[in-house]
Amino acid sequence: MADNDIFYSKENLDNYLKQLGKKFRKLNGKYTDAEIILIGGAAIVSRFNFRNSTTDIDAFIRASSVMKDAINIVGDENGLKSGWLNDDFKKTRSYSDKIPQYSIPYKTFSNILHVRTMPGPYIIAMKLASLRPYKYDRSDIIGVISEEKISKEDIITAVENLYGSIDSLQHSKEAVAFLDEIYSSIDLKNLYDEERSSERKNFQLLKNAEAYGEQLSADNLSEVLERAKKMASERKQK
Domain DUF6036: where (predicted)? Predict the structure, then answer.
């Protein structure tokens, strides 16, 4: 869990994508188009105002193998970390092969790189599929709902379109309960702030655990977090 993250805002995200379009066109020629669908934090930063930046750019990439070279070159030229734009999310619970079907246009760069993003209900559906307590999943869901006034029915439809049903989500009961909490809340701003604060604390607990020698992996993060919470609570009571 790195401390030296680079933050991507809407402005520098567009700038890097513009450079990527030029570099891809130069390497691949002007006759073969490429498509990138922004996912997660990058999709939110590109379309919404409640969140100013993200530390990674997850994307569904449909392009020739040259795209990887173009991504690496743009990263090197701008001092970005390796894999600054990647499709690693395909290994996570939020992935669905139906994502392209429901994506919407964002911008085109160099007449060859077509960048797309996801509609609000589908961003929420993917966040519900992950629902990680140490990332901004829960607060992002509240932020998107607050800004776009999305109905619960539209979210359920998006979940069904991507994953079959809400019951198929790994944390389905938690997802349903969280949606119920949001739509029964009379103060979404306060709920957003509470979730954001909790997510930051959880992330810090994991960083501290890692510093004390815990080996973190995608499989044990929840377990390590619960153990870290328990230890923090016990220390506070002493």
Answer: 17-143
